[in-house]
Every structure is written in structure tokens, then in C-alpha cells.
Specification:
By secondary structure, the protein is of the alpha+beta class. The protein folds into two domains: about 240 residues, Lysozyme (Orthogonal Bundle); about 150 residues, Lipocalin (Beta Barrel). The protein contains twelve helices and 16 strands. The strands form five sheets. It has a six-stranded antiparallel β-barrel. Strands 1-2-3 form a three-stranded antiparallel sheet, covered by helices on one side. Belongs to the transglycosylase Slt family. It comes from Spirosoma rhododendri. Pfam families: SLT (PF01464).
């Protein structure tokens, strides 16, 4: 399993912030410099509360361990809106995941693992092909009893993939004898981890020298656990505004039944399959037949809709991004509401012109829990032409606004 690069979208695309964070070691404490606000935040590492993962104590008396945990905590609190959205998703998905973990005798702390792997998104796909909530590679998924075939992928099914993840975690724990090592092996593979253990003659995750991703992996899981369940213990470590946000109840959450939780994912999967199977015609001379101007730019603002990027996957053809409508309106005779979710597929990328072509066939109403069938395409708001010019990849991040026109 390799963590979902976005979402580790992770992470520029998901967190969507230009703020930089620097950690300056100053003896017994770590200074975190938030350059966006020119403000210094200096948590005292000696005041950290005891932390446990699956009943195993985290050795926070070791300064390097304490600094890594603080690092993970701060990185997860860069965007309080994003963190709130993650809490909302967790409040709906955890009631499904937790009983399955209990049935398989897997510690409840592993419910935070898919937050790191996929941000609890069934459509998440890594560059290497790991897919779904728990980010299984095709071969591993099949070995665990999941069906992976065109048009049907059990990795995108929350219950089936969680059952498979439990079987895999049980196997890892039986082989390694430690839940921390099982988590590390989930990320890096049991063969690579056993090789490090033999070479270094060390079986404690916190003292093993691992690759950068695996070395930070457990701390990222711990950060979500502490932020979601023990944030009140981190006054002086987490900035006050984040603590205030974490104390806010997650409002507007409905009962987590299959139809409610999985409906958006079903729409995404359907849209993705269409994008992958439908060929995009590009003339040999490099000119696109679809790149034609609409009647005039004024019509774009009169009849088009505006959206804000909510979640994104990789910048690759066939990937699905989620947008929220920023205002109510009418599109092709169909009323749409502010906050409705538009599931758009990256239909094509033209490197010669630095244009991205996005298409959406459905809009999902979160308030009414129903789908609007609409055929929309992202357009250049200045010219009314199909496709969006993106000269700088940093523009493609949370909050990116686009104009859409009915096809």
C-alpha cells in the first residue's frame, strides 16, 4: 500500500496552501515557523501528553519521536476547513469501519489509516495503481479476495475493502508481532520492512531507519487520532484557532447507511469509467475540434455556473475531481443550488497549450440526496472556449474556481 499522493494531495492539491512551515530545533522544544503569518509557534515537547497506538506506548521521551509527532500534528492543522471536512467524512464512515475492525480483532486505531491512505475516498487512485479507501494494488486485492475487473472494483466498496484490509492487517501482525510494525508494513510492504529489521537488528518502529514516507507514516496516523479524539490535551502545542475549530461539533451529518455514504462515490466511479472508455479525438495538426469559441464571453457569465474545487486527484486523464457550486442558478433548464457537488473527469490534458479539459455529466445535491443529469464542460471564462489554461500547476488546488457551460 502506498499512501494516496494527494490527498498526500496528498498534498498540495488537497490542502491547497502556499504557506510554508519550517521546523527549527532549539533544544528541548521545536519552533514551528508559519511564514504566511510571520508568527512563531513554539510548543514545549516536554508537555506532550502520553500517546498510544493500539495499546503500545509512543516513546515521546525521545526528542526525535516527539518532534516528528508535533511535525505531523502541525501539518494536519494547516487548513482548518480541510480538517473539518475530514472530520465530517470520518463521522459518517467510522460507524461502518469500526464494527468490521472489531469483528476481526483489529485495534480501533486502524480506522485512521484510510484517512492517510485515501482521505476516505473510494475513487482515490495512486500513480502506481493502488485504488480505493484502503489503497490496494490489484494483485494484493485479488489475493485478499476482492474482485478487480473492468466495470467492477471491490476496492471502491467500503465494506468489502475494509474486510480485506482487516485480513491483511491480521496477517501482518501475525508475522511481525507488533501493530506499529504492521502499520509500517502496510505502507512499505512486509518484505522491505523485514529487510530493514534484519539489516539493522532492530524491531522497534520508532528506532528503525526507514524511507521518508514509511518513517512518517505512523506519525500521520497518530496525528489524526490525537486531533480527532484528544485535541483538548494539546493546548500550547496546537494553535488556539485550530483547537477552537476541533471543538466545534460536526453538524449536518446524516445516518451512515450504504446509499447515503456511497452515492457520491458511485457517481465518481461511473464518471471515471466513462472518461477512460471514451476516446478523445485530437487532430494530427494539434488543433482541437472541440476547442471552438462559444457565442460570446457575455453568455458565459449569463448562462454558465461557477464552482470551487473541493477535492482533487492526480492531474491525469481519467481522474475525478469534486467541485462545489458557489451559487444557485439554472443550467439547461435545470435548477442548481449553492453547495451542490459536481463530479468532473479530467478528459484530456494538452501539454502544448497547457490546457486541461474537464467534463461533468452529473451534479449531486447533498441536501436532496439526488442526482441531476447535466452535461457540462469547463471553459475559459475570458474567452468562452473549452478547456482551462493552467500555466502553473500550483493554481490547481483547493479553492480553484472554474466556469462551466452546458454542452
Amino acid at each position: 500500500m502506498h499512501s494516496f499522493v494527494t490527498l498526500s494531495l496528498s498534498a498540495l492539491l488537497l490542502t491547497g496552501t502556499a504557506s510554508s512551515i519550517q521546523f527549527v530545533h532549539t533544544g528541548p522544544s521545536t519552533t514551528v515557523q508559519l511564514t504566511a503569518t510571520n508568527r512563531l509557534f513554539s510548543p514545549d515537547l516536554k508537555t506532550l501528553p502520553p500517546v498510544y497506538f493500539c495499546g503500545e506506548s509512543v516513546p515521546l521521551h525521545e526528542e526525535v519521536v516527539a518532534r516528528r509527532l508535533v511535525n505531523a500534528l502541525v501539518r494536519n492543522t494547516k487548513q482548518d476547513e480541510y480538517l473539518f471536512q475530514m472530520r465530517q467524512r470520518a463521522s459518517r464512515f467510522f460507524p461502518i469501519i469500526e464494527p468490521i475492525l472489531t469483528k476481526h480483532n483489529i485495534p480501533a486505531d486502524f480506522k485512521y489509516l484510510p484517512l492517510v491512505e485515501s482521505a476516505l475516498q473510494g475513487f482515490a487512485v495512486s500513480p502506481r495503481g493502488a485504488t480505493g479507501y484502503w489503497q490496494f494494488m490489484p494483485a494484493t486485492a485479488r489475493e485478499l479476495g476482492l474482485s478487480v475487473q473492468p466495470g467492477h472494483d471491490d476496492r471502491k466498496d467500503l465494506r468489502k475493502s475494509t474486510e480485506a484490509a482487516c485480513r491483511y492487517l491480521s496477517y501482518l501482525h501475525n508475522r511481525l508481532g507488533s501493530w506499529t510494525l504492521a502499520a509500517a508494513a502496510y505502507n512499505n510492504g512486509i518484505g522491505a520492512l523485514l529487510g530493514n529489521i534484519r539489516k539493522q537488528q532492530q524491531r522497534d518502529y520508532y528506532y528503525l531507519r526507514l524511507n521518508a514516507e514509511t518513517g512518517k507514516y505512523l506519525y500521520r496516523i497518530l496525528a489524526f487520532k490525537e486531533l480527532f479524539s484528544n485535541s483538548h490535551l494539546y493546548e500550547g502545542v496546537i494553535p488556539d484557532r485550530i483547537l477552537a475549530s476541533l471543538r466545534q461539533p460536526v453538524g449536518g451529518v446524516l445516518a451512515a447507511d450504504d446509499s447515503d455514504v456511497l452515492m457520491p462515490v458511485q457517481l465518481i466511479n461511473e464518471a471515471t469509467e466513462v472518461a477512460i472508455n471514451d476516446a478523445v479525438d485530437t487532430p494530427a495538426d494539434g488543433e482541437r475540434l472541440t476547442d471552438i469559441p462559444l457565442p460570446n464571453a457575455a453568455d458565459v457569465f449569463r448562462d454558465g455556473i461557477r464552482t470551487r474545487l473541493h477535492q482533487s486527484a492526480n492531474l491525469e486523464r481519467g481522474q475525478t475531481w469534486v467541485f462545489n457550486l458557489t451559487r444557485a442558478g439554472m443550467v439547461d433548464g435545470q435548477p442548481v443550488s449553492e453547495g451542490d457537488m459536481l463530479y468532473a473527469v479530467v478528459e484530456d490534458i494538452d501539454p502544448k497549450t497547457s490546457r486541461i479539459y474537464l467534463r461533468a455529466d452529473k451534479v449531486y445535491s447533498a441536501s436532496e440526496h439526488r442526482t441531476y443529469d447535466l452535461s457540462l464542460a469547463a471553459i475559459d471564462a475570458a474567452t468562452g472556449r473549452l478547456g482551462v489554461e493552467v500555466p502553473d500547476i500550483d493554481q490547481v488546488r483547493i479553492g480553484w474556481t472554474l466556469t462551466w457551460k452546458s454542452l
